[in-house]
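hey can u check if this looks right to u? its 287 residues, i copy pasted from the old doc so theres a chance i mangled smth
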Amino acid sequence: MSSVQIMAILNLTPDSFSDGGRLSSQESLLQAAETALKAGADILDMGGESTRPGARCVPEQEELSRVIPAIEAVRQTFPNASISVDTRKATVAQAALRAGATMVNDVSGLQYDPAMAEVCAGANCPVILTHSQGTPETMQHNPSYPQGVITEVASFFERQIQYAHKAGVRQASIILDPGFGFGKTLAQNLELLNHLDALMTLGCPLMVGTSRKTFLTLGVTDIPPEEREALSALSMAFAIERGARYVRVHNPKLQAPAVRLIEATLKAGPSRLDCKRNALMDTLLSQ
């Protein structure tokens, strides 16, 4: 088995930044799930509420109506698939786990719903804690990290890991996602990517979701999300080299081969280009 797990994004929302509305029918959903699994995806991540910057909060019943039938259909068609539910709401997470989900991906890092940690503990399932500053509606309104983005993200994770433990979530069940693009400027995203290994000391595997994110274009505004696959692969290479063990992608057919190539290259031995690469990142950070 590969040491890096690939999570394929299956958005069930009409307003996701990259592919909203694409999976509006059960037929299109099952086709996308089959394509992802055949391409090498290890996990299917299904969400009914967009968490892109500026997205509105979706009412609970609306989110349930999008997510639960979809999870049931995928579970019935692909009984051995690992399914993650992307939600901030405990009620949605609990219903999704009953419908066949095996993992919870909480973009709020257990902050939004006080009952979420208890639901995850009760199900004894893996839970992804994502760092974000503010809410989807406000996260990109002048994000600030007075103590430095690495320090503050690490401190957030330390607090939330302890919070999860107190609720009964096992250490082995926790995965950490630093939340690229969630309340972070271009410079902060680049710094986080360049120093991702600093979060390895927290003792939990790292998930990275840089796929098609706006910061990858370095401010170039005419590169649409679907044309950012090469940039996504490059950012994943940085992340995997620095310790990421899960990557969340929009197009596993393109990105799975990139992940395997990155892994094979790293297994061949340490790179002689580390100094040049870090110098490049330092240059980008200083701009």
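The chain has a mean pLDDT of 90.
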